[in-house]
Every structure is written in structure tokens, then in C-alpha cells.
Amino acid sequence: MSTPGADVTEAASPQAREAERIRRRFMTAAGAGALAALLLFALVLQSGRDGWFDDDLFGGFYDAQGRALLDGRMDVDPEVPGIEGFRIDGRTYIYQGIVPALARLPVLLVTDRLDGRTTGVSMLLGAALALTYVVAAAWVARRTLRPGAPLGTGEAVVSGAAVFGAGTGSMLFLAGQVWVYHEALVWGAALALGSLLHLVIWLRDRPALDVAPRGRFAGTDRHLLIAVAMAGLALNTRSSVGVGPMAALAVVAVMLAIDVARPSGIPAGRVISTLRSATAWWSVSRPRAWRPLALVVAGAAVSVLVHVAVNVARFGSLIGVPLERQVLVDGDPRRLEALAANDGSLFGLHYAPSVLAQILRPDALGLRPHLP
User: What is the DSSP string of 180-204?
Assistant: First the structure.
């Protein structure tokens, strides 16, 4: 004699086992592609180096910044950044994000023998994190688009090849030079990928705001928390990369604000027309929308404030860097002339046509006996 609950469990067990088998097989194939890409990344990273802890060119920026933070200041030893440093009032600053320097503090507290020698290891760890999220994103995509579909050999091979291809594109190029610039890009990309994936998972799995229970964060809300945190870390690692996930959070904030604003019972599809009415602005019956909205807004605000605070402490401005104060620029009349002709900046949309022409011109392409 069996109970109805037991019958349901027995019926579901084969499906659950099959789903787990598919997941493991997919992860094995995608993981193999990621591992192959990581090994190639390590091979290129170490080409021309004597060991993992070589003293690399422009490899000590974050260590110098970490040492300065431990001393309660922002300026660094001018010999570390050299021509890349910014001289202001007799002190030298770097413009790189603060997060990699903070990550080095535990090591800096123990020893100074690794100063300027951890860039390669850091890049390898960043690439491993990025590839982990590539595999996770591939699985989320499959589970969303083909839930429960059998996984054949062809799909498994293609999945592994796709992950390998994703890991041997721009990421492999970054392995070609072990220095602070590529380290920042590797970690910025890894953190941005993580933020965007967690945000996608939250958007896909979050319960309806009207029916979700109140109380502490649900499982899906934790994905939103991680997405916000990783976006902030990306922004303060490499701002040009971190802008991506921060923009995605801004879009989500607008979506949540609309959910908060529309009265209960009005479908989201009618929001625009509803908001035109003077009586449709606020509703206090949607507590579940307030919490993720507050999390996104507060988290993004803290991330931006940290970025601004660091920039003010270094350069006295909210955003941007005083290029005319860089040692490289200050000693180059042509660069100073270019800055004077472009309002003190070397960035702008008016450069886009010439840059695009340079990228697309066929005579600029060629083969070199170097990898990558």
C-alpha cells in the first residue's frame, strides 16, 4: 500500500535523475571547453616569462596603492608608475580602480616580497572567474530555452566549443601582456559578466511582486544583491567596463519604479497610459517592489560614491583625470598641443570616424609571428 505522496515522488524521481544527468553532461562538456581556454590563457600569459611571480613592467601599481592605503594616503611611490603617474602638488597618483588594490591588502600585510609580482596570478584568477560565468551563462540559457530537452553528443560538443571560443577571443588577447592595464580589464570583464548573469537569473526567476511573501530576502533576491555588489566592484575596477552592468541596473530600477508607481490590479502593459492620469502615480500596496528598488538604488549610489570619492581624493574632481598632469603627457609637446586643441581631453565622439576608418582599413591588417 502506498500513499499519494509516495506515488508523486516515485513518478518524479526518474525525471529528476534525468535532469541531473543532463546538467552534469552539459557542465562536463562546457567545463572542458573552459578548462582548455584557461590552459591556453595560462600558456600565452607565461610566454616570455621566467615564472608566475616575475617582476613585470607596470605590474606594481596596485601594490603601491595598497601600501599607500595602509599608510593612510592616496599618493604612491613615483618610481612605481613612472611616466604613467600623475604629478599633483609634488605627489604622484595613479588612475586605476581601487578594488584590485584592496584585494591585495591581506598579502601586503604579510610580506613585501611579492610587490609587483602578482599581476600574472591575478590575471589567471580573473580569467578563471570569467570562464566560470561563461559556463554558468551557457547553462542558464539552455535551461531557459530548452528545459528538459535531451542533450545529444552534437550539442555537447558544440557547447564545449562555444565556451572555448568565448574564452579565446578578447580574453586571450589580454593574456599577451602581463601588466596593470590588462589585469584591470580581465577582472572588470569577469565582474561585469557575473553581475549581468545574476541579474538575468533574478529577472527570470523572481516571483510576481503582488504575491511574493514579505520578510527577508528570498533566494532570487540574493541574485539581485550579488548583481548589485559585482556591478559596483566592476565599476571600481575598470570604470569603462563597469558602466555596462551599472546601466543594466538603471534599467531595472526604472522597471521597479514603474511597478511601484502603478496601482494594484493594473497590468504592467497598461503602465504608460495609466501614468498619464493624475490619480495613477502612487500605490502603497506593493511592498515587494520597494525592497529590490531600494537595493538597486542604494547599491548603485554607494558604488558611484566610492568611485567619485577616490577620484576626488586623487585629483580633486568628481570624474575624469587631469591628463595634462600625467608625466607622459607633461613631457610631450605634441600631446600637450592635442589637449589644448580639444578642451583638455583626448576622448569624444568626433574621434569616431577616424578611429573607425583606421580599424576597417584593409592595409592595416597583417600577419605577425607572435601569439596572440
Answer: HHHHHHHHHHHHHHHHHHHHHHHHH
Q: What is the DSSP string of 274-296?
A: HHTSTT-S--SS-HHHHHHHHHH
Distance CA 217, CA 161 (A): 37
Contacts made by residues 352-359, CB under 8 angstroms, sequence distance 24+: none
| Cα distance between residue 167 and residue 152, in whole Å | 23
Q: CA angle, corner 229, sides to 223 and 231, nearest 5?
A: 100
* Residues in the chain, overall count: 372
Nearest CA to 75 among 61, 58, 57, 94? 94
Quote the cell numbers at residue 76: 604612491
The tens digit of pLDDT for each residue in 276-301 reads 443 333 343 344 578 888 999 999 99
The three three-digit cell numbers of residue 267, written as one number: 497590468
Report residue 148's pLDDT band, with 50, 70 and 90 as the boundaries: confident
Condensed to tens digits (0 to 9), the pLDDT of residues 83-97 reads 999 999 999 999 999
**Closest C-alpha among 129, 74, 122 to residue 96:** 74
pLDDT at 214: 45
Alpha carbon distances (Å) from 21 to 15, 17, 191, 324: 10, 6, 29, 60
Which has the minimum average pLDDT: 136-150, 163-177, 214-228?
214-228
Residue 277 pLDDT = 46
Strand, coil or helix: 97: coil
Give, in order, the Cα–Cα distances in Å from 157 to each of 32, 167, 171, 190, 268.
Answer: 10, 16, 21, 24, 41
* CA–CA dist 27, 14 (Å, integer): 20
